[in-house]
Write a structure and sequence with these properties.
about 350 residues; alpha/beta; 7-stranded mixed beta sheet; 3-stranded mixed beta sheet; about 15% strand
């Protein structure tokens, strides 16, 4: 089954789970196999804050209301996490979405604990918190309401224009210096965006979201991610100029990361979508990864190494300087944190 048979999906492949011994294969031919819809499954997790100690990530705790992501970005580094759930990192990742219905309540419990030290919480650290299901389920909005109730600072990164729906809550947090929103913009080319990120917002919608947030007084930035050597690297100056015009205050980038089995999915995608540029794209990626398709080492994995990686970094810094986006990120305020009283708290005074 080719990508053209799966409207709005990032990949047609569903590789075997590396951690499962038993695999199911359909007897249907490619022509007879139905195009899969999206299935939503209940996630019964009893905690909502995910901790990490990676030196590459500028936050310790994150919230992911959804596992799997319907945006279907073929390059997504989060795809392998679906294998821990006994699914495939391929088509399963974008069609079988686990939903944490209790996320807001679990967050309130976590923030109320005396052991919680106020600090920035990221939405999201793995899959997009504003993916299509959020429009109806509103788990991210309800989590933001809890964060505003406690005035706990939050940093959002998303590819979705749906974030503007929550300007009212974000403005409340921004008033005490406790909110920042980053829009991830991979390309300004509508056709390339549709192929790379089939169910994410089109580039112009993301720029409109940046403008709306900025005009509402909410600090914003742009993340050129992933930066794909040989594919979208020439767009760096245009993306940064457009983001600056929309009101972004800072800019960052992340080099494409291809952990297994995303490496195979991405190579297949390049072959199907850009057969004439396949050698150039994959060759440039390997130039930045010491001859390999991926480099999992901390620090290096975000920027790459070698002459071409250095050239990309220099181009980005020059373009950011020209666009006025080379300013440092202002730290979010933790001093406004509070634990609102709840019914029964006053009884202890008697």
């Amino acid at each position: 089954m080719s990508n053209s048979d799966l409207s709005g999906r990032g990949t047609s492949a569903n590789p075997a789970n590396r951690y499962e011994r038993v695999h199911i294969e359909s007897d249907l031919t490619d022509e007879a196999a139905p195009s899969p819809g999206t299935t939503f499954l209940k996630d019964a997790s009893r905690s909502i804050l995910s901790a990490n100690d990676s030196p590459d990530v500028p936050f310790t705790y994150s919230i992911n209301p959804y596992r799997g992501c319907e945006h279907g970005c073929v390059y997504c580094y989060a795809r392998p996490s679906h294998e821990y759930l006994s699914f495939s990192a391929g088509l399963d990742f974008e069609t079988k979405i686990l939903v944490k219905h209790d996320a807001p309540e679990l967050l309130r419990v976590a923030l109320r604990k005396p052991s919680w030290q106020p600090q920035v919480i990221a939405l999201s650290g793995n899959t997009d918190c504003y993916q299509p299901a959020e429009r109806q389920l509103q788990l991210t909005r309800r989590c933001l309401q809890v964060l505003a109730e406690f005035r706990n600072p939050v940093g959002i990164i998303t590819k979705s224009a749906l974030v503007v729906r929550d300007i009212d809550i974000l403005r409340e947090l921004a008033a005490v210096g406790a909110a920042h929103v980053t829009l991830s913009i991979t390309t300004l080319d509508r056709d390339l965006a549709r192929r790379l990120e089939p169910r994410a917002a089109q580039p112009e919608r993301r720029l409109e979201a940046l403008r709306a947030l900025s005009e509402a007084g909410i600090p914003t930035s742009v993340n050129v991610a992933p930066l794909i050597p040989g594919l979208n690297d020439e767009e760096i100056p245009r993306i940064l100029a457009a983001a600056a015009d929309a009101g972004a205050g800072q800019a960052a980038y992340v080099l494409l990361r291809l952990p297994k089995p995303v490496d195979v999915l991405f190579e297949q995608w390049v072959k199907e979508n850009f057969p004439d540029r396949q050698a150039r794209i994959l060759g440039r990626i390997r130039e930045c990864r010491s001859g390999f398709i991926n480099d999992p080492r901390f620090k290096s994995r975000m920027r790459g190494e070698g002459v071409y990686a250095e050239q990309l970094g220099s181009l980005f810094r020059a373009a950011a300087r020209h666009a006025g986006l080379d300013r440092p990120f202002a730290p979010l305020n933790v001093e406004a944190f509070r634990r609102p009283p709840q019914p029964g708290d006053q009884l202890g005074l008697w």
